[in-house]
Structures are given as C-alpha cells and as structure tokens.
C-alpha cells in the first residue's frame, strides 16, 4: 500500500483562539468543503468529478488532540462508488506557538482505484487544502 502525501504550514496569530477552534471536532467538520449534511461523526458531501456531481459519504473515525504535545490527529474515511479514501492528518503547533505544521497522508482503495486514481487524488488534495485554508482563516480572523 503506497500512501500519498501533502503537507504545509500556516502562521498562528492567536494561539488561544487556534487551540479553542481545533479543540472542537465540529469546527473541523464545518471546514470540509461541500458538506450537505453532517451528524456526529458522519457526513455527506457533493463534489464535482469530471463535471459531474458526485455524492460522497464520510466518517470522522479519529479526532484526538494531545494537550502535552499540541498534536491533533484526524482520521477520515470517505466512500464513493467504487472507491474508499482513508485520510490521516497530523497537525502540530510549534513549541513557540507561531505556526501550525500539518501533514496529510491518504490511500485510495477499491475496485475503481486504478481507473479513478488521478481524479480522486486531485479531488482529495484540493479538499485537504481547502479544509486547512478554512481552519487558517477561521483562526486568524
């Protein structure tokens, strides 16, 4: 199993506000783009793939923050016709509180993996970037 990876960082203007925001998993789910419905740990989203609307179902199966290390670990499983995408994101607040450094790894599986891989990689990576950008905007404004 080979994992795809995307990572980045953003500046923290208000450490307390950032920690309060990421401390609530509902804030995280609220930043996932194109959500049409969400319950405790599950959601549905509509995405466009090759110009066609596609509904995906997702599950937030892990949301843990370590108060000692300020590391947030988020696990998502997203399912669509013929494919399952497992996504793990780890975010760490730097010791001096100036930045959040994030690292996302994901794996695509399922019978349509080979056929849809480039499309699913593109949609997954854009969704990760958009989610992180939302978190950044909501913690810095």
From TrEMBL:
Pfam families: COXG. InterPro entries: CO_DH_gsu, START-like_dom_sf. Gene3D superfamilies: 3.30.530.20. This is Carbon monoxide dehydrogenase subunit G. It comes from Sulfolobus acidocaldarius (strain ATCC 33909 / DSM 639 / JCM 8929 / NBRC 15157 / NCIMB 11770).
């Amino acid at each position: 199993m080979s994992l795809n990876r995307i990572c980045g960082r953003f500046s923290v203007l208000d450490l307390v506000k950032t920690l309060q925001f990421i401390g609530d998993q509902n804030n995280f789910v609220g930043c996932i783009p194109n959500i049409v419905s969400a319950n405790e740990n599950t959601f549905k989203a509509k995405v466009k793939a090759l110009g066609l609307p596609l509904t995906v179902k997702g599950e937030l199966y892990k949301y843990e923050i370590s108060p000692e290390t300020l590391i947030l670990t988020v696990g998502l499983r997203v399912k669509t016709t013929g494919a399952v995408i497992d996504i793990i994101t780890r975010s760490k607040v730097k010791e001096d509180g100036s930045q959040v450094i994030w690292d996302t790894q994901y794996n695509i599986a399922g019978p349509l993996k080979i056929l849809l891989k480039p499309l699913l990689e593109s949609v997954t990576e854009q969704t990760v970037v958009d989610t992180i950008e939302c978190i950044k905007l909501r913690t810095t404004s």
